[in-house]
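Notes for week 9. Today we move from apo structures to complexes. The key idea is that a small molecule is not decoration. When we ask for a structure prediction with fe (ii) ion present, the ligand SMILES becomes part of the input, just like the chain. The input block below holds both the sequence and the ligand string. Read it once before you look at the output, and try to guess where the molecule might sit.
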Amino acid sequence: MTIKSIQDLFVHELSDIYSAEKQLTKALPRLARAAENPQLSKAFDQHLEETRGQIERIDKIVEQLDLRLKRTKCAGMEGLVDEAREIIESVPQGALRDAALIGGAQKAEHYEIASYGTLCALAKQLGHQEAAKLLDQTLQEEKATDQKLTELAEQGANQQAAQVSKGGDKHAPSSESRH
Ligand SMILES: [Fe+2]
Ligand SMILES: [Fe+2]
């Protein structure tokens, strides 16, 4: 399909994020299993449930507006999921992998936040008020997930910092300067 109007663009973007969400329903259980911190694992599981609800919202929009979505694979999310898989394979399970998983998941959240922000604006422009409302609900969930991941990262970073100070002054600046 050629994109010739703002309505076409709306359908294109909606098809893209629909694929992104579908890919996430497969990736999130893997992320939950790969995490060591039970809170992180739980956050991934909770977001899986939310993601299923987000797919239902898109189905509702498609029905309400009588749209036909394109069968497309979101290349952006495919790349982000690939990167997450690489992290799982290259970092042994533990705090370091958890930090990497959080970073990877936040990249996916930011992709979604950008997509839903665009979709909301397009829906409003097109006068699809009900769709705009549903898209905004999802946008708020994505933002809350991103925020939760930031909090988990900060909590983890603090724990690690506490361990470093227990194990000696590893981060103390060297008294010998090369300059
Ligand atoms: Fe999502
Ligand atoms: Fe998400």
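Residues 168-179 have pLDDT under 50 and may be disordered.
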